[in-house]
């Protein structure tokens, strides 16, 4: 059957709209190489969808034209894609129009202000390579392949958080195109309500084209990764608990119990990533981790860039276009993150978490399992001392950090097993954490690691009403309701 096209047909309208775009903007239709690359470069296979087309704006005015197109076609849905790492399907993918921000690739360092302009088409890995070697920014650092865009819109925990807070605490100004089509630069003294809302408010307020971020000096570092067999669990738990009283802001550890399917066999391994933001940490900081019998899967690093390139979990080159020289850790997978928000750590909480994961391994392979892990990431109680008031509540004196739960599997049919299971485990562990005094009730859930079913009120808590009124002001016709994400009413 020949598809009927009329003036109101979105494809026809898009063809017209394409003529008004800047010469550098691109539109890719199904079957083209550009389309295939864009729709397949997601971290999770479960995020892939087949959009009507892929639109790559090159300048802010292209996005203005896009919002005009949407205004004339109320049924058009869309998605905005940065680095393609967010887990819930449909948050940066769509069967409508995919706005791929890949052409916003600026990483421009300003020596006079020591700030850097970063485009939403960049992954953190690129940003670090393009900054002067003695400067850095508090962006993703435990997993550099993550996109700047989602990270900066949701919060941004990193190895630098003990020193500099979240990524959203390090943003000086934001360039955004709001649904009316207006192009704005927002900061603390200009459209400050929108600036406040965009720091943690996700994709509720428009399409961001640039973040100007504060940079910090970067010197040599200490980075060591230890791996342990499962029989060392008790000792590693002790080491985490002893470390969790750490108050040295230069140090950070991430420790995870990882079950991976390798040649049809489930292999458990415990990993501790130890980071110190100077070449030589004080002896006592990591000595307990070092003393447990271990292997070291990667060499120790003394510089930031090498560490970024080599950390486990970074390597998904086939999906992110990093080139054949990068070896992938895992075959392509579906999956989800979830998180339990913690105010502190106790042995009993780690034990309760491991007691949940252990039995899961029995059914893991039969449900398409590829890898699963709980990730214990203790931050200092002072982690929010430099926090700035913004959309996502993170307040001095109220530590709130994610216990990260990660599940990867293959086969769409296995979604029905894993998605409800993840929600059940998250509720169970949240209740346990509150009972054990490791979490407070109603702690704001972290947008970027939340499972699909999380209520938006759980993310924004007391800030939700203010966010709703800001949204009403800047998106009164609810254009952003036509894209996926945790939607502020
Ligand atoms: C391997 C891995 C490691 C991670 N490690 C960390 C970590 O250490 N710390 C941490 O805090 N988080 C971490 N995360 C979570 C990460 O912060 C989120 O997944 C984040 O959303 C990824 O951003 P992205 O640009 O890659 O994602 P995308 O999927 O492209 O986008 C995420 C959301 O942002 C929206 N968006 C994208 N670009 C724009 C734009 N220009 N304007 C408006 N909206 C836009 C999208 O519509 C989508 O809803 C990790 C995730 C993965 C997969």
Q: What do you see in this structure?
A:
By secondary structure, the chain is an alpha+beta fold. The protein has 3 domains: 10-102, Uridine Diphospho-n-acetylenolpyruvylglucosamine Reductase, domain 2, CATH 3.30.43; 104-218 and 461-482, Uridine Diphospho-n-acetylenolpyruvylglucosamine Reductase, domain 3 (2-Layer Sandwich); 222-459, Vanillyl-alcohol Oxidase, Chain A, domain 3, CATH 3.40.462.20. It is built from 15 helices and 16 strands. The strands form 3 sheets. Strands 5, 6, 7, 8, 9 and 10 form a 6-stranded antiparallel beta sheet that branches. Helix 8 runs antiparallel to helix 9 (283-291) and helix 12 packs antiparallel against helix 13 (415-435). The longest helix has 21 residues, at 415-435. Mean pLDDT is 93; it is low at 1-7. The protein binds flavin-adenine dinucleotide. Flavin-adenine dinucleotide binds at residues 43, 79-86, 91-92, 101, 120, 140, 142-143, 146-147, 149-151, 153-158, 203, 207-208, 313, 448-449, 485. InterPro entries: FAD-bd_PCMH, FAD-bd_PCMH-like_sf, FAD-bd_PCMH_sub2, FAD-linked_Oxidoreductase, Oxid_FAD_bind_N. Keywords: FAD, Flavoprotein, Oxidoreductase. This is FAD-binding PCMH-type domain-containing protein. Residues 47-218 form the FAD-binding PCMH-type domain.
